[in-house]
Specification:
Folliculin, LANO_0B03070g1_1
């Protein structure tokens, strides 16, 4: 059984390509945890958000069908692999942000299925923030990896699209809410940001942009469901 990882990635204005959340599985859940990591290298845009004020816990874990599914902002076991993958995909000229899936493979990065999307935000460079969901099959065996991907293509792409549509719908609702609240002032949901210099751009967490404190909990649960299906129906 190849190692598989579902990640939510973001191109941070300050730090470049970053993993927002990576979900992995193993029989030993503790092996996937990293008790501490250099949080000073993460801004609000490239960090997970927890609904509790207690942020000492930096992971979410679910035990299901004899496996532990763990989501972290810093996937310790495969962070180097995931970082290499997202740097590659965000630099690809073929990368699109309309939720169109594309795949790439090499011996070092394994087989990857990526679906990118954008969210409007006047506090971001270019008035938008770029994200991507990706499934990584960490195997040098291209043929067996492609069999898994082909077998579950509809399940994976439709699952990713549901997540993306939920995030985009939440963001659209929040933009409209802010516009209504500030309609008497100079606030515009899409315009005006280009008049600001980049020094005025501020990091915004995805949970803030969607007004959903439970967003990363939802992502963990959905990633766990998808990985469990792939794991048990390989």
């Amino acid at each position: 059984m190849p190692n598989m990882l579902i990640s939510l990635a973001h191109f941070c204005d300050k730090h470049g390509p970053r993993v927002l959340l990576g979900t992995q599985f193993a029989q030993d859940g503790d092996a996937l945890l990293l008790p501490d990591y250099p949080t000073e290298t993460f801004c609000d845009s490239c960090s997970m958000h927890f609904p509790s004020e207690d942020t000492s816990s930096r992971s979410m874990r679910t035990h299901l069908n004899s496996m532990y599914y763990v989501s972290t902002n810093y996937p310790s076991v495969r962070y180097q692999l995931t970082s290499s993958v997202i740097r590659h995909m965000f630099s690809e000229e073929t990368m699109s942000y309309d939720s169109t899936p594309f795949t790439f493979f090499d011996q070092a990065k394994g087989l990857n299925l990526v679906m990118g999307f954008k969210l409007p935000d006047t506090d971001a460079r270019g008035d938008e923030r770029r994200y991507a969901l990706l499934l990584t099959i960490d195997s040098s065996d291209h043929a067996s990896s492609m069999k898994i991907l082909a077998k579950h293509w509809e399940f994976i792409t439709s699952g990713f699209k549901k997540i993306i549509d939920y995030i985009k719908q939440r963001r659209e609702t929040e933009v409209r809410r802010n516009f209504a609240k500030n309609s008497s002032g100079d606030f515009t949901p899409m315009g005006g940001g280009y008049l600001k210099g980049n020094k005025y751009k501020v990091p915004r967490n995805l949970s803030y942009l969607t007004n959903d404190d439970l967003l990363f909990v939802r992502l963990h649960k959905w990633n766990t469901f998808m990985l469990d299906v792939l794991n048990t129906n390989e």
